[in-house]
Amino acid sequence: MKRRQVLQGLALAGASAGLSTALAACGGSRSGSDGRRQLNVWTLDLAPKFNDYLQDVIQGWEQQNPGVRVRWTDVPWASVERKLLAAVFARTAPDLVNLNPPFAANLASKGGLLDLTPVLPEGAAERYLPRIWQAGRQGGDQFAIPWYLTARITMANRGLLEQAGYAAPPARWQDVPAYAEAVRRRTGRYALFTTVVPDDSAELLESMVQMGVRLLDDRQRAAFDTAAGRSAFAFWSDLYRRGLLPREVVSQGYRRAIELYQSGDLAQVSTGPDFLRNLQTNAPGVAARTAPYPPLTGADGAANVAVMNLVVPKQSAMAAEAVSFGLFLTDAANQYRFAEQARVLPSATGALERLQASLRDPGPLDPPQRLVENARLLSATTLESAQVLVPAIPGIKRLQSIIYTQLQRAMLGQLDSDVALSRARQEWDRYAAARWP
């Protein structure tokens, strides 16, 4: 289940003083008409498809907490920033909110999210994948409870691989140039499509981390203008200048990669398992030649994972209840049920183990269905070596835009790649000095 990229560049930065005050202001406890205290919970784009599931979870928790009634609100992706900021200023912020890490990090940096450490029961962290739990920390504070995950794998056209002389696509970035050249020379197609459009996929930024690049230091200053950074910039600019990447990577986003793969013009694409279901409908001929493979990684084998979190605004007067409901919603039993319905991955270790077991023995399936379930199992197994490669820090989308823009200039031959990297460092450091003096 692929989520749209949202919430890029918050209005938070523009009104930091007033917003910080509003974020920290305490909201009063609310009561419903039945006299029970009301816990306000927001999720993103889950209604109406998951109404029955959420209502069942709510009912289960309310039975254990008879003095509290959960008021669930589902908010569209496109309007959550505006709605949440309006609620903050009106002192009506929800008690528990489902957010993606970049927006949550911006709120946390403004002092708007509660450090959950004093409220969490002992051993709570042990229920979740360790690297995923750690991704919800900022400045020593635990500001998030992890919920559901997605992990990309490689889908590859076996016909094009065979023509290029490969039994499988490469597993490491260092082997991509020779592979890309073989695909281009022997098939006339392209090996892969990794966009450099600033406001699109972070896949290329993630690849830099996999190549050993540290993005920022502890003071949020640029740490990428190093030998590893120069090598990564040269890697991508050389591929493009040699004609081994589609020309559109500098002007079109991830959607173009899907189009090229479906038309048979791309040897592989980085995507989620359910891409196969769409491919079997939209391009059955290509689907028949497609197989799932592990994702591309660096030397350490670390793959990327995307996380959706639950956070508690500091305004909440029901922090203990909010954390209790968040832990209930994300426990092993409830996460397993949601992972099966939404076809995502769980962050709770017990749920992941159960999901992997069910995918290893899915019962009788026709070949197309079995291929999809095998891809889901591969994606779930990827979590064993996955982590959030690009940290959810305030300004991360600005960093991506700066790096991509300068890399575009290197790809197009407007700048030497080392010079382009140096200019990216200078531009980011000017921004960082103003934001974090």
Q: Give the CATH class of the largest domain.
A: Alpha Beta
Q: What is the end-to-end distance?
A: 40 Å
Number of strands: 14
- Percentage of residues in strands: 5-15%
Number of domains: 2
Unreliable stretches covering 5 or more consecutive residues: 1-21
Q: Please compute the radius of gyration using only Cα atoms.
A: 23 Å
Tell me, briefly, the overall form.
Answer: globular
Any idea what the CATH superfamily of the largest domain is called? Periplasmic binding protein-like II
Largest sheet, if any? 7 strands, mixed
Helix content: 40-55%
Please state the second-level CATH architecture of the largest domain. Answer: 3-Layer(aba) Sandwich
From the 3D structure, determine the CATH topology of the largest domain.
D-Maltodextrin-Binding Protein, domain 2
- How many H/I helices? 18
Structural class: alpha+beta
Rounded mean pLDDT is 91
How does this model look, in words?
This protein is an alpha+beta fold. The chain has two domains: 11-150 and 306-368, D-Maltodextrin-Binding Protein, domain 2 (3-Layer(aba) Sandwich), CATH 3.40.190; 153-303 and 395-435, 3-Layer(aba) Sandwich (D-Maltodextrin-Binding Protein, domain 2). It has helices spanning 16-24, 51-64, 80-89, 101-109, 130-134, 158-164, 176-187, 203-210, 227-241, 254-262, 275-282, 284-288, 319-329, 332-342, 349-360, 367-382, 396-411, 417-435, and strands at 30-31, 37-44, 68-75, 96-99, 137-138, 141-142, 145-150, 153-157, 268-271, 290-293, 303-304, 306-311, 345-346, 386-387. Strands 1, 2, 3, 4, 7, 12 and 13 form a seven-stranded mixed sheet that branches. A three-stranded antiparallel sheet has the order 9-8-10. A hairpin with a 5-residue loop joins strand 1 (30-31) and strand 2. Helix 6 crosses helix 7. The radius of gyration is 23 Å and the shape is globular. Mean pLDDT is 91; it is low at 1-21.
